[in-house]
Amino acid sequence: MEGARKRRYSAVWEHFDLISPNKVRCLVCDKELGYNNNTSSMLRHYRALHERGDSGPAVSIQASRKSELDEELVKMVVKDSQPFSVVEDEGFRAFVHKLDPTYVLPTRQALKAMVAAKYAKAKEEAKACVLKATAVSLTADMWTSINMDAYLAVTCHFLNDSNELKTIVLGMLPAT
Description:
three-stranded antiparallel beta sheet, 6 strands
């Protein structure tokens, strides 16, 4: 689809072809990616799967650094209740670029998938932890939000193998 090409400034276009207005194909592995008028997903794909530095360890260190930064981004989003769209905010992007110009922020959709994966992992770890407990105590708490919405939470308390008190929220629902 050579006619559909427009002026390209990023060097990553050397490794991709535009196959439709919203799809590109990697010339290295033939994988198709969504294209939304920016090269972020293309850069992320190429750097993660195909980029090779002069020495092997440098590439693995860069990949390791990216994983570390992605994990910290997920922690920040969860801890501070940030929307997934924070990665699209111009000021946030400029701030991150100033901190580490080589880091490519994940897309909103990729961040959402990372948070979902972290949740699934934490949920499985919590289940495994509760299953090991010999005895548990359950508590139920109700409260209302500032908007006067009522909520009910059920929490499980138990001692682990090291006799440390552990607390896990089993669920939270709107109370009707």
